[in-house]
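[[Encoded backbone]]
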Amino acid sequence: MDDRTPRTETVPDTGDAHDAGDAHAAHGAPDRPPDDMAPASRRAGRMWVTPKAADVVGASSTEDEKLLERRPSLDFLDTDPWRALRILAEFVEGFDAMAKVGPAITVFGSARTPRTDPVYEMARTIGRKLAQSGYAIITGGGPGAMEAANRGCREVGGLSVGCNIELPHEQGLNPYVDLGIEFRYFFARKTMFVKYADGFVILPGGFGTLDELTEALTLIQTGKVSHFPVVLVGSAYWAGMLDWFRGTLLASGAIDEADLAIMQLTDDPDEVVEIIKRFRDAGTGAQVDEAVPTAAGPRTVSEVTAARPTEAAPSRGQDASEA
């Protein structure tokens, strides 16, 4: 016989290969076409991996093996799965702490507001008046306008809440917080601001305050949260932003009048309380003079109808309804 002629051997079919394949499928392995070159796959947690995939995803050993390793590497502390557990823990601890706070208003403002600034006293007065009306005060827990709102609330026996954030330059809780919660992640902290608030009061502030304002506006605009009052405090401070909203965003069709109507503007602490009470009463079905929040300030429906703004943007300090 020519040595180059391929030899064939008959191997008895014992059914072992078929049985092994059935056992493999029975344990949840994905169906694979028969292929003598295909590497064996195995389960790794909730995954099925080949040796190549195990190297890619770091599943070369079993979970028990890694758990029971006597001196594991500390690198796992910086991995995304471990980070996800910390994020989950922040939500759980935040929900546990905030669940029984009751009616509350979240107050935003600059951490850089000095105690000698009139805005500090305004925030303190608003915190006090809202607490006297039965609301807890939630802030970022820091200094400045946040401290002032917490301080006013606590001075009259209200519940003062601070959701503090870990920053490169440490921001500690102010001394007027009754219930303080520490967060590593902005998005977990911001969830607490929204989830447990019956309204937002926005005092003069910087990028952080603008971030919180625009997130609230977006959540209301897109229907992700029930409509609740968003009160801007400080007509002179916010005038330029509102002019731009109307003259650029509204004029270009990026927003409409209903979006501007989410906000109300005032300089009066008593009016802040009245706006929030009006929304509360409307939510309970009480008879109220329904208010339409506008960038010009709180107005009744009839007043807004009688004074529709034109397309031209109002000048700084001018009533938007007179534009």
Q: What stands out?
A: The radius of gyration is 30 Å. Confidence is low (pLDDT under 50) at residues 4-12, 14-29, 285-323. The chain is about 40% helix and 15% strand.
